[in-house]
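Escalation from tier 1.

The customer reports that the assembly of two entities below gives different structure tokens on two consecutive runs. Tier 1 could not reproduce it. I'm attaching the input and our single run for tier 2 to review.
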Amino acid sequence: LAKTTQPISMDSYEGQEVNITCSHNNIATNDYITWYQQFPSQGPRFIIQGYKTKVTNEVASLFIPADRKSSTLSLPRVSLSDTAVYYCLVGVGNQGGKLIFGQGTELSVKP
Amino acid sequence: EAGVAQSPRYKIIEKRQSVAFWCNPISGHATLYWYQQILGQGPKLLIQFQNNGVVDDSQLPKDRFSAERLKGVDSTLKIQPAKLEDSAVYLCASSLGGGERYEQYFGPGTRLTVT
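Tier 1 run:
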């Protein structure tokens, strides 16, 4: 079962680029890497998913090195509304897709 | 497109009482999940349904928790009797399929306080 490790908290300022790195040393060959965002009093929301190299959507980019033992979520030009908890998940693809949420990274964006 | 609906949003009960939560997933989503989120922690999967069958309930405390998904649509999660440590937010999520590749859509959750 792949376990993920990410910083508990990060601080940033509006307009900066934020990079949150997650380590998953025991990732399996068929595992994907998924990031979710959670605002207070709301359920988590899907941000991005990738398998290798780089994935980009309208919200974020996900960088995955060749060994796939880590991944970096990049949020360009953050705003106050990006203040949330960000979860890195590695799915257990051969067990029905069960996702295991860790503690997440609490990102605080300041003006 | 309507999202995942949950009710009630808040519930306060005394220990040893029973409580039930309701979830209506996004139309057409075959997979439904119930998570428990304790303050300061990430969500923990309690049970996963594929249509009306249980795929994974390995972390469901079966001596007090039960869940059902009749007709493969709505679902209810019940706790009987409740303990103080059951105080948490109970999140329902749904997805088109049951693999990790499928995006999970979460409802707003039900905040349970057991006194």
